Amino acid sequence: MQLTPIEAQAIEQFAFYVTVPIFLELGDSSGLLATGTLFKVGGRSFIISARHVFDEVPDLAKLAYPENPLRGHLYTLGSFTILRPTEEHIDVAAIELKSPETIERLEANWQFLSLANVAAPSRFTRDGAFFVSGYPESLTKNDAGWTKGKLVTAFTQRLPSAPSEAEQPVISELDLFFDYSRNATSVAGNQIETPKLPGVSGASIWEILPVLGVWSPETATRVIGIQSAYVHSKYIRGKNWWAVAKVLELADHGLAEAVRAKLSEIY
Questions:
Q1: Rounded CA gap, 94 and 39, in Å?
Q2: In the chain, is it the N or the C terminus that has fewer CB atoms within a 10 Å radius of its CB?
Q3: Is the pTM of this model over 0.90?
Q4: Would you say domain 5-16+119-241 falls under CATH 2.40.10.10?
Q5: Which residues make Cβ contacts (< 8 Å) with residue 43, sequence separation at least 6?
Q6: Are 154 and 131 within 8 A, CB to CB?
Q7: At 43, is the secondary structure helix, strand, or coil?
Q8: Domain extents in the chain
Q9: Computed from CA positions of residues 214, 215, 218, 219, in that sequence, does the dihedral angle turn out positive or negative?
Q10: Per-10-residue mean pLDDT for the chain, 267 residues long?
């Protein structure tokens, strides 16, 4: 799929305000743990990310986020519940935010998506119709008390089948695989060397759709998965967004059914 430079920049800007780096406070410092995406489902506030990044965190109360997308002091999440499936292959987690102060700060400085922004992956896809936006650990730093991260967007294409070296189990209804070559095309259309992706786990995988009528990033994109693993120069692995329904079932069957109903729509 061919995007104009202006369209590509607009898409990355849209992703920028809904994609949040998740940090772990470590005494007087902090480390980037993962990437998440802000969602409102059924009037409740969530950060959707990958499950495995939280499995060995000794103190979940030390999870933190920056004040705003550009730079900012870190704040812990306050009161929250983390929903994690027991099945390891469903590598998706949902952090339900319950602190009014946290929610208000995120609403003021970031943007929450809704189920209108998600979809099942298209059966027939086009080259370059997907992208992942996340925060690589190697490009995130603390500068004079301000936490600065660099959102990286990788435009890619879906692989027709699972790579032979992919860790098992591979479940066709759940697992998505995308090309991740050593070189990629930047938003500006330049060839660049792709970064290593520690820190990007949990980022949304987006599909770019054809638009009938007025084009905008909101109408042209849908979140279709969650990044769970990668092998540099080979592939990115993700989980189909239907796995989020399985996770939200742990909190409320109504939320899960709302997700399933949205993903059953045909584009």
A1: 10
A2: C
A3: yes
A4: yes
A5: none
A6: yes
A7: coil
A8: 5-16+119-241, 19-113
A9: positive
A10: 83 94 76 93 97 91 88 88 92 97 96 97 77 82 62 86 91 91 60 68 94 92 94 89 96 95 83
